[in-house]
Amino acid sequence: MVVTFVVHVEDKPGVLNRVASLFRRRGFNIESLTVGHTEIAGISRMTIVVDTDADGARRVEANLCKLVNVIRVDNITSSPSVFRDLAMIKVAATPESRGAVMQLVEVFRARVVDVAPDSLVIETTGTEDKIDSLLEVLRPYGVLEMVRTGRVAMARGIRSVGERQGAEMLPDEEGDVSQSV
Description:
181 residues, alpha+beta, Alpha-Beta Plaits, 4-stranded antiparallel sheet, 4 helices, 25% helix
């Protein structure tokens, strides 16, 4: 089963390495890992996707919680959540094929972000299946290059999964992060 973790960490050098090393040491393969800043200065958010069973998911969650720079770990696999990937796809586009490619882009609610004499760069967001489907219909035109972000995820509703009533992540005066109740 595919498990999705949302991990809030201190935004400091070496944190990503410690998290990735935990997975390596435990023998888990990370299928997707995205990291970015959050709405709170000094805190980054990781979305980590791993293929494991329920027991493995509990072990991963427990081990992540033990890491020094980890603030909070949420397993949102079975929670109501929104999942998205981003992809940029460079497609060969001759003057004759450009119109057909642009029609496909519209059907998939993607958009052209760069036009060159012999190619188009297309940006799309959505589920992995949507991106895979777009990629398949573009292949006959010639996919020249592609990059994908991996999954980002957010629990639905006002409060995050695992967040207690009144609990907030706030940086203190020294710039470190603490959790208060």
